């Protein structure tokens, strides 16, 4: 599911950047900035990089039903989905000779998300069927904490912004139990 969300966002941004600037190749990639061995990831220079820097469980969704009606007079008991928020780092990884290009591309990304803060099947038919809705919000990180983020990544700072992508639902859909519905209740009062 996480991969589908990030690929949707990168495809959306690539289409927007190609249309806006007449580009022929993709400039947005889903990638880490640094490999596990500490080396710089290949083929990310002069690109917009989408990287997941954190996942958090959305706690605001409560009291959801764990019983789903089947339409046949029975109910399936299932585990509730896990709702996640993705902290998405959007980095303009351009070398110093293209610094203004980095700022231009990053500005276009911000404008794209500002124009449509919510993404649904109705507004974006190419959004995967398993994704109900995505909401992108700028996630402000204090400068000191941002320094820790970049140190943790192991990369040098480049112009970037962090978005909170709300809410990605993950559910296997396994049925734990099937329960029959209640039927045949006689509610009329009996006379004596």
Give me some keywords for this one.
3 helices, 6-stranded mixed sheet, globular, 192 residues, 3-stranded antiparallel sheet, 9 strands
How do the strands and helices of this protein lay out in sequence?
Elements: H1 2-21, E1 28-30, E2 47-57, E3 67-69, E4 74-78, E5 82-93, H2 99-115, E6 118-120, E7 133-138, H3 143-153, E8 160-170, E9 175-180
Parallel strand pairs: 1-2
Antiparallel strand pairs: 2-5, 3-4, 4-9, 5-8, 6-7, 7-8
Structure notes:
The chain is α+β, with helices and mostly antiparallel strands and 192 residues long. It has helices at residues 2-21, 99-115, 143-153, and strands at residues 28-30, 47-57, 67-69, 74-78, 82-93, 118-120, 133-138, 160-170, 175-180. Strands 1-2-5-8-7-6 form a six-stranded mixed beta sheet. The chain has a three-stranded antiparallel beta sheet with strand order 3-4-9, with no helix packed on it.
Specify the overall morphology: globular
**Number of continuous helical runs:** 3
In total, the number of domains comes to: 1
Query: How would you spell out the order of helices and strands?
Result: HEEEEEHEEHEE
Low-confidence blocks of residues: none
**Proportion of strand residues:** 25-35%
> Mind telling me the C-alpha Rg?
23 Å
The end-to-end distance, rounded to whole angstroms, is 62 Å
**Strand count:** 9
Residue-averaged pLDDT, rounded? 85
Helix content: 25-40%
**Strand ordering within the main sheet:** 1-2-5-8-7-6
